[in-house]
Amino acid sequence: MKFTTAAACEQVVWEMRLADYPRALNRSRMNNLYNGAPPYSDEEQRQNRINTNVNSLEGTKILHDARRQFATAFMTADPLFTVTLDYGPVWKRREWGTRITTEINKRIKASLPYLECRRSVFALNVLHGIAPAIWEDRERWCPDPRGIEDVLVPSNTLVSLKNLPFFAVFRQYTGAELWRMTHGPRVDPAWNLPLVESAIAWVDQQAQSLMNASWPEVWSPEKMSERIKQDGGIYASDSVPTIDTFDLYFWNDEGKKAGWNRRIILDAWGQPGAGGIGGMQTASNSRSDGKYGLGSASEFLYNPGTRKYADKLEQIIHFQFADASCVAPFRYHSVRSLGFLLYAVCQLQNRLRCKFNDHVFENLLQYFRVSNPADAERLTKVDLIDKGIIPEGLNFVPQAERWQVNDGVVEQALTMNRQTMADNSASFTQGFDFGKETTAETATRTMAKVNATAALVGAMLNQAYNYQQFQYAEIGRRFCIKNSKDADVRKFRVECLKAGVPEEALNAERWDVQPVRVIGSGNKTLQVAMADKLMGIRPQLDPEGQKEVDRIYILANSDDAQLAERLVPQQRHISDSIHDAQLAAGTLMLSMPVAVKEGINHTEYVETLLHSSLLTSRGCCWGSGGDFKAP
């Protein structure tokens, strides 16, 4: 589809929203459960006279454990990913790649927005199995996390996204945000400025009516922009309505170059009090024509025409999937998460615990048997103290005559539910419930348990690493954009160029980006055990390998990458060309022939020889500090 009219965009977006509404209801149930909502509704509690109605939060704890597993695997690595080059002389590629890796990771790890983006991705992964992150424009490197409900994808779309024709992203802008995006230098001409002004005027009108504000220049339309700027904090507050939009992206293979196009339309249907089935209506009778001053005709808020926005989907949005579904081919809307796997058993466990606690409280109550109704009044005058006296006519109801719960069945049900939760979450968390075992625990048995858990978790993390590689590659591409408006990108390029990296090497097409995978699959016990094993073979390694093992050991035991770098700093790589030239310098000084092997860097070789001969001609010697000093 070309989406040449805003009405066509509205229709497609609304159909996707209608189709997603039943799924949204299911997601809201999971959100409520893991947010701590009680298992019984108020009506159920009232009708069944339930006293205890609490959430034990067992499912919440399991999801937090799974998020911790992701955090350990992705956030403790230093660097987050490595860059290797296939450009330039072989003897320079390692040096340039190391410099690029250091500079790019320095800025990524120092970014608080990217830290929060990853935390949101981990949470969405374990809760719903789909974690989208989208780039707001074509230059800024840091993506923004999005809720699964904000990304509308057509039905029957595969997880590979190879058959994705279009998708929409729901966005909300304050008046101040939309003003900054559409005013100032280098504004994209694709913005429909009359409609932008109309939407901001609508927000301004709503702000005045909601806050009962009375500005002296309220009757001056030209002062509206000044109010937006000087009262930006008010316009960004919760009391002022937002400008809701749908960002529509679609594949267009017409013309000389295929790619993704972009359109933005206003959400003219989002209004309170909508009726219909489930609160939803069709686009024809739910549209609010007066909202944003849009009128009855549909208009684009942003329309660049045939201009391509991106060449590949990875340049717009990135998805991280933690799919636990069993039916292939796997589809986007059939993804099943850890939260889905635990939903039913967590609900059962919560209700069972509530009933069990009701029984416990009931056992704490005291029941009396009276001979006649008149004796019941005596009960209110009984003082139940030590060595107290029970009046005639009042008798305790003994435990044997009260309702007894089968404790064995209750305990078996609780244990069975816990085991089910442990089995369903074994691929996401380190904990593994082996039940009550009488066999004595040994070091070998403990490591067998740890390895069994790590094998399950490792498969999940390997999948996550594979998906994450595409995001790292796109971040790397954005760091290579010349004259970018992102300050981090500009600083990165300056530092790399100052360090001697040629501009031709700052090309993502010549990079191989690989995520750094922590040892032990994020399992702390296994990580320390593997580090200990590496320390055992440390004496057999060369000095460079020994330093790498030392860094792994310090990082495994401290989780502090900076500490490992301070204690075992990286050393400058000495190439074979420099090493051979330094050895040959003495032979040349004795006027003896020297053979030069193939494949060396002749530039470095000659520079090293000239440097050595210059030092010798000046009669320099080695000082005590390791520096050359003249006699």
Describe the structure.
This protein has 18 helices and 14 strands. The protein has 631 residues and is an alpha+beta fold. Among the domains are: 6-54 and 130-340, no CATH class; 579-629, no CATH class. A five-stranded antiparallel β-sheet has the order 4-5-6-7-8. Strands 3-2-9 form a three-stranded antiparallel β-sheet. Strands 1-12 form a two-stranded antiparallel sheet. Helix 14 (524-536) runs antiparallel to helix 15 (543-558) and helix 15 (543-558) runs antiparallel to helix 16. The longest helix is centred in the last third of the chain and has 37 residues, at 443-479. The termini are far apart.
Observed structural traits:
disordered C terminus; 14 strands; alpha+beta; 3-stranded antiparallel beta sheet; 631 residues; 45% helix; single chain
Mean residue pLDDT: 79
- Give me the count of strands: 14
Instruction: Give the helix/strand class.
Output: alpha+beta
pLDDT under 50 segments (min length 5)? 212-236, 271-285, 432-438, 620-631
Q: Strand sequence of the main sheet, in spatial order?
A: 4-5-6-7-8
The percent range for helix content is: 40-55%
| Distance N to C terminus | 81 Å
- Counting DSSP H or I runs of 4 or more residues, the number of helices is 18
Sheet of most strands: 5 strands, antiparallel
Strand content: 5-15%
Shape: flat
Q: C-alpha Rg, in Å?
A: 34 Å
